[in-house]
Write a structure and sequence with these properties.
- The protein has 9 helices and 14 strands.
- By secondary structure, it is an alpha/beta fold.
């Protein structure tokens, strides 16, 4: 019986990728060596890095004026790294606070210089995306988080601004087409739509760098990694390799445009059931609902949680418990999730309804 993986991250990846990875763990590129033991300077791995970068560029149609990097430290390292590179000592950074991760990003910048929260949905438990705000044209940058895994909200339309636009896209990159030219920096932890934890994708506009006027620690300077092609130090070899395979899979399955259609179909099915079924309630504002992470509650948890949890366990539904800070349920439907898994969860919800 198939296990349906709704985990928020690390999360589901394509089965085809796992099969190729399993072979490469024993014999990679006919070397008689594992992919996790070869030198990152070898021709075989340099080819992996080059293909991974090329596939990112192709799938997101990235202009030549941008660099693509695979770094370590997760998106959490980027919270400080971007501030070092973009926030000048006498400048200002503005943040859109839409959840736990944007809040943490803001705190890192505030510890380095002048940063402010321009708008926030915190008082409403982050159940919507603020829209009524005005970005200052002379800000060093404006930062937002495109998708909020904990609260199930997603930015549907990015703001127009003269200030440099920076976005954390960890949980929805490659899930929909994107105009990269609107952004000065995009960053994303790999462990959602790209690969296993360990690598962080960074897309940065080259001429946006070198303006902060402050000392930047070597490892936190984007130009350090640009100059060495993401190999200033040993890169996360395994994560980059699996990311490259996942990008191949994405391309073979129609790219981001086709992924968007599949993701919207999956999300529509689940949200329609949440709205129809009298046992459940969605938590996010309808206009801001995420296609990646659907968060919902039982209307009477005391009466029905035990029964529902037993149903989802029996049907091998994995990873649907809400984040520990908010409770409830969360169904994460990343690119690699098949429609039949969403249908299996819907069947569980209907079974609960029929049981009482």
């Amino acid at each position: 019986m198939k296990t349906h993986n709704f985990s928020a991250g690390p999360c589901i990846l394509p089965q085809e990728v796992f099969k190729e990875v399993s072979e490469s763990l024993i014999n990679f590129d006919n070397l008689g060596l594992s992919v996790i033991e070869i030198s990152h300077r070898s021709k075989s791995f340099v080819a992996v890095m080059d293909e991974a970068v090329a596939l990112v560029r192709e799938q997101l149609q990235i202009p030549d004026t941008y660099e693509v990097l695979f770094l370590q430290g997760g998106a959490s390292m980027q919270f400080a790294m971007l501030a070092f590179n973009f926030l000048s000592e006498n400048g200002k950074a503005q943040y859109l606070d839409t959840g736990a991760w944007s809040s943490k990003a803001y705190k890192e910048a505030a510890g380095l210089g002048n940063a402010e929260v321009l708008a926030s949905s915190k008082e409403a438990n982050y159940n919507f995306i603020p829209k009524d705000y005005e970005i200052e044209d002379d800000a060093d940058y404006f930062h937002c988080t495109s998708n909020n895994t904990i609260y199930g909200t997603q930015i549907k339309k990015f703001p127009q601004t003269e200030a440099p636009l920076i976005c954390d896209m960890s949980s929805d990159i490659f899930s929909r087409p994107l105009d990269v030219s609107k952004f000065d920096l995009i960053y994303a932890g790999a462990q959602k739509n790209l690969g296993p934890a360990g690598a962080t994708l960074v897309i940065v506009k080259k001429d946006a760098l070198g303006r902060s006027g402050r000392y930047i620690p070597t490892m936190l300077d984007y130009n350090t990694h640009i100059s060495k092609g993401s190999m200033f130090n040993t890169p996360p070899v395994f994560s980059v390799y699996v990311s490259m395979l996942t990008l191949r899979w994405l391309k073979a399955n129609g790219g981001v445009e086709a992924a968007q259609k599949r993701n919207e179909e999956k999300a529509a099915l689940l949200y329609n059931e949440i709205d129809r079924n009298p046992f459940f309630t969605g938590t996010a504002a309808v206009e801001d609902r995420s296609t990646m992470n659907a968060c919902f509650l039982l209307n009477d948890e005391a009466a029905h949680k035990e029964a529902f949890d037993a149903i989802i366990a029996e049907k091998k539904i994995y990873g649907v418990n809400g984040h520990r800070s908010v409770g409830g349920y969360r169904a994460s439907m990343y690119n690699a999730m098949d429609l039949d898994s969403v249908v299996a969860l819907l069947d569980c919800m209907k079974e609960l309804e029929n049981k009482f």
